[in-house]
Write a structure and sequence with these properties.
295 residues; alpha+beta; OB fold (Dihydrolipoamide Acetyltransferase, E2P); 2 domains; 5-stranded mixed barrel; 4-stranded antiparallel sheet; 33% strand
Length: 295
C-alpha cells in the first residue's frame, strides 16, 4: 500500500521549521546581546560615576570633578571651573584612601600590562632569530638570549676592552650608558663585581621619565642599543619643589615649585651626566639610586 503524503502537513511542517529557526535565531541573538548590553550599561554607569564633587580639608569644593591622572603627591582633576592639582594631604582621610587605592590598582594594572608586552616582545624576538644550523668556520656560535642581562654577544660584537683589563673604578670616572649595558650583557658576573654598590658617573641620552607613586622620586631612563636592557637612574624630588610630573607621554619632566608655577626640568633626547650608586644588574635593568645631575 502506497503512502500518501499530504501537502498541507508538508507545508505546516515547513512553516513550523521556519518559525522554529527564526525563534532559535532570536534566542541566540538575545543570548549573545544580553552581556553586550549589560557591559555597555555598566561602562556608561561607571563613566557617569567618575564625576563627583570633591571637597578638600579647607572646605574648597570642586564640582563635577573627574580624575585625569594620579601623581606621587596627589592627583590632577578636571571640574566645572577648570583643572587643578590637589595634594594628598589636602584631601579628607576617607577620600584620600579611596583615591590612593584606585591609584595603586591602576599602577598595578599598568605593571602587569608592561610585563605582558615584554613577554610578547621576547617571544617575537625568539621567533625572529635565525637558525642557520652550524656556525661559519672561524666564528663562535651566538648565544644571546633577548630580555636578560646574562645574555652574551659574539666576540666581534663586543665593545671596548674586557672588564678584567680595565683600571680600578674611581668615583669621578664617567662610564657611557651604552657601554655599561654591553658590559653587563657580555660578562654579567664581572660587571657586577666591578660596578655593584659603587658610586660613579654615567653619561647618556634621556629616553623618557617615569614618576613613582606615593614617594618623592622619579626614574630617568637612558637610551640603550638593546631594547630589552635599560639603565634606570632614580632621582629624589628637589627640596624646593612641591611635585614633579611628566608631560608629552613621559617625554618632558616638569616640576612645580609653587601652586601656579611650572618649570621644565629635563627633556627626552637631552644628553646628561649623572652620579649615582649602582645596584647592579637585575633582570632587564641596571639601576642607580641616590642620583644627582652633574651636567
Amino acid at each position: 500500500m502506497e503512502s500518501v503524503r499530504c501537502p498541507c502537513l508538508t507545508l505546516m511542517a515547513k512553516q513550523g521549521s521556519t518559525q522554529w529557526s527564526k525563534f532559535s535565531n532570536r534566542q541566540a541573538a538575545n543570548h549573545f546581546m544580553r552581556p553586550v548590553i549589560l557591559s555597555v550599561l555598566l561602562v556608561a554607569g561607571a563613566s557617569f560615576a567618575r564625576a563627583e564633587d570633591i571637597t578638600t580639608t579647607e572646605r574648597k569644593v570642586f564640582k563635577n570633578a573627574e580624575v585625569i591622572r594620579f601623581e606621587p603627591d596627589g592627583l590632577v582633576i578636571k571640574h566645572d571651573g577648570g583643572t587643578n592639582w590637589i595634594g594628598w594631604k589636602d584631601l579628607p582621610t576617607a577620600t584620600r584612601k579611596r583615591f590612593q587605592t584606585e591609584a595603586r590598582k591602576r599602577k598595578e594594572e599598568e605593571i602587569q600590562k608592561l610585563k605582558r608586552d615584554l613577554a610578547r616582545a621576547e617571544a617575537e624576538a625568539a621567533r625572529l632569530k635565525e637558525d642557520n644550523g652550524q656556525p661559519e668556520t672561524g666564528k663562535q656560535p651566538q648565544a644571546e638570549k633577548s630580555g636578560g642581562l646574562s645574555a652574551r654577544r659574539t666576540t666581534g660584537e663586543e665593545r671596548g676592552r674586557p672588564l678584567v683589563e680595565l683600571p680600578p673604578l674611581k668615583p669621578d670616572d664617567i662610564v657611557d650608558a651604552a657601554e655599561l649595558v654591553q658590559q653587563f650583557k657580555n660578562d654579567p658576573t664581572a660587571a657586577d663585581r666591578r660596578y655593584d654598590q659603587k658610586t660613579f658617573r654615567v653619561k647618556g641620552v634621556i629616553e623618557r621619565f617615569e614618576p613613582r607613586m606615593f614617594v618623592r622620586k622619579y626614574d630617568v631612563l637612558l637610551e640603550s642599543a638593546d631594547r630589552f636592557v635599560r639603565v634606570v637612574a632614580v632621582f629624589d624630588y628637589p627640596n624646593d619643589y612641591k611635585t614633579v610630573f611628566t608631560t608629552r607621554r613621559g617625554q618632558t619632566l616638569v616640576g612645580k615649585p609653587a601652586e601656579n608655577k611650572e618649570v621644565t626640568l629635563l627633556q627626552a633626547g637631552q644628553a646628561i651626566v649623572l652620579r649615582g650608586k649602582c645596584k647592579g644588574g637585575r633582570d632587564t635593568e641596571i639601576v642607580f639610586t641616590g642620583c644627582e645631575l652633574v651636567h
